[in-house]
Amino acid sequence: MTIREIYIARHGYRSNWLPPPHPPNPTGIDSDPPLAPHGVEQAKQLAAFLTSLPIKDKPQFIISSPFYRCIETSKPIAQMLDLKVAIDRGVGEWFQKSRNVIPIPANYDELNHFFGNVLINEDIWPRDNLHVIPNDKGETNEEVFERCKLFWLKFIPAFEAKFPDIENILIVTHAATKIALGSALLKLKSITDYIDDNITLLRAGACSLSKYSRIFESDDYNWKIVMNGNCEFLTKGEEMNWNFTINVEAGSDEDIKRRKKEEEEQQQQAQQSSNSEEAPTTELAHGSELDGNEDEFDVRARQSFYITVDIPNYNNKYDDDDHNGKNQPKIKRNVIKPSANFQFTDLKESHPLIKLSNNRDTQQDVIEEKLSTKRKSKIVQPSDIIDGRIYETSWNKIVGTELIFDEYGELIGKVEEHIVADPTITFKNKSANDINVDNNDEVTNKNGDFRQIALKRLEEKNRNQN
Fold it and tell me: CA 364, 369, 372, 373 torsion: positive or negative?
């Protein structure tokens, strides 16, 4: 068997990318920082993504740059996939010749103090196994490209001979090396070449993942890229993307200063733009009261506004009478599925309309129907009762305050009021010529045109006010 898929990942967010003070380098080696806490989380998210892949696509072997941040990124991946991590200087960091210090990374004996339960036995894959070693005087763009070409030329036949049953491998490396390795696989002329006619460069954000698949119809050394710097599994998406056109080392002090300067310039431009134009404001929902405080309005109008919506609940109607008869219908709990559609009219109105649809579970209905037959009592699904209906709502002030937290447990806002659906007032769409919705009408409809109903009702209200 031969290598079929190659994944190349960049390490996660480095600790020295954050403002100082920075933690000391664990190995004591220059330019060998650990990951920031955010980078550790990125590594876990990358591990979860790789673990979620089909068995045939999961990495079966991990090779890492010997620098601490790369092995730290590899650690959760190895643990979740039940693998060990080999190190190889051939995929190590790129340092420019202008550097005063060109660090030499640690070997297995030093790294085992930190990653003893993660690293592979040194005898299986020595750090300098292929004798592809970065120039200790630094490398030009062309030299790092040649180093990566040589790495593949030696690595693929040596690895396939030693591990004939492994088809998918993961390499965890650095931005420059990630790009150079990919460029070599694609047989580009240089590390700044585009990979397609859309002027696309190879991407190398923090903890990004690229994937290359072998073209078996051709010779053994032709590859195609099927994933370019993927970051969709990361909570904050792509960060710290880099390429060789930037002309400074990725993640270096010069790179951080350059990014900070660009960010400040963008902020200044945005400030100048906002000063020359009237700042847009978001009107508060109809149910909010400002008590004439214009300063409060100015602040709150620029913040996210959270409300809760109470959908009709039919449980109590049956629960109270459930003991009166064995054949009394059983009410299931209201459950809103992620696939449900929720629509609403303008929240500045005193009585917004809402509609919840696509919330039925047809497969569950079949199961419940069979259970109902055995129990000799009908099971009522509340989602079936409200699905597709348009309800009129009213604003209600909540007693106390409800807090909103994100997925990490961070407080992001609070709810001070909500809208409550009136189950006695629903709307039905009639023919296009005789739509006439009155506040006192009590009509139902499962397949009405929501937008048309809402607009018609708004027209009726405006005419009444005039």
Answer: negative
Which H helix or E strand runs over 114?
helix 108-115
Q: What SS3 class is residue 92? A: coil
Which of these, 155, 158, 161, lies nearest to 173 by C-alpha position?
155
Please report whether residue 266 resides in a domain: no
Count CB-CB contacts under 10 A for residue 315: 13
Residuewise pLDDT in 10s, the chain (466 residues) = 689 999 999 999 999 999 889 999 999 999 999 999 999 999 999 999 999 999 999 999 999 999 999 999 999 999 999 999 999 999 999 999 999 999 999 999 999 999 999 999 999 999 999 999 999 999 999 999 999 999 999 999 999 999 999 999 999 999 999 999 999 999 999 999 999 999 999 999 999 999 999 987 555 679 999 999 999 999 999 999 999 998 788 877 788 888 888 777 777 777 776 666 544 434 444 344 444 444 444 444 445 667 777 777 655 444 444 445 455 555 555 566 666 777 878 777 788 888 877 776 554 554 455 555 555 555 556 666 777 788 888 887 766 666 666 555 566 667 767 777 777 776 655 544 544 444 444 444 444 455 555 556 656 656 665 5
User: Residue 225 phi/psi, 5° resolution?
Assistant: -90, 130
CATH number at residue 363: 2.60.40.4370
Q: What is the CATH number of the domain that holds 185?
A: 3.40.50.1240
Same domain, 366 and 436: yes
**Distance between CA atoms of residues 380 and 110, nearest Å:** 65
- Claim to verify: residue 239 and residue 343 sit in the same structural domain: no
The residues with which 343 forms a beta bridge, in sequence order, are 355
Distances (CA, A) of 126 to 66, 85, 221, 263: 11, 11, 24, 43
Q: How far apart are CA 427 and CA 417, in angstroms?
A: 25
Residue 265, in any domain of the structure: no
Residue 434 lies in a domain: yes
Question: How many domains is the chain built from?
Answer: 2
Cα–Cα distances in Å, from 304 out to 4, 281, 292, 299, 413?
A: 48, 11, 20, 11, 8
DSSP alpha helices (H): ranges in 277-399? 294-300, 315-319, 362-375, 382-386
276 domain residue, yes or no: no
Task: List, in sequence order, every residue forming a beta bridge with 151; answer none if it has no partner.
Answer: none
Which amino acid is it at 8? I
Give Cα separations from 132 to 97, 126, 179, 189, 436 (angstroms). 18, 12, 17, 21, 80
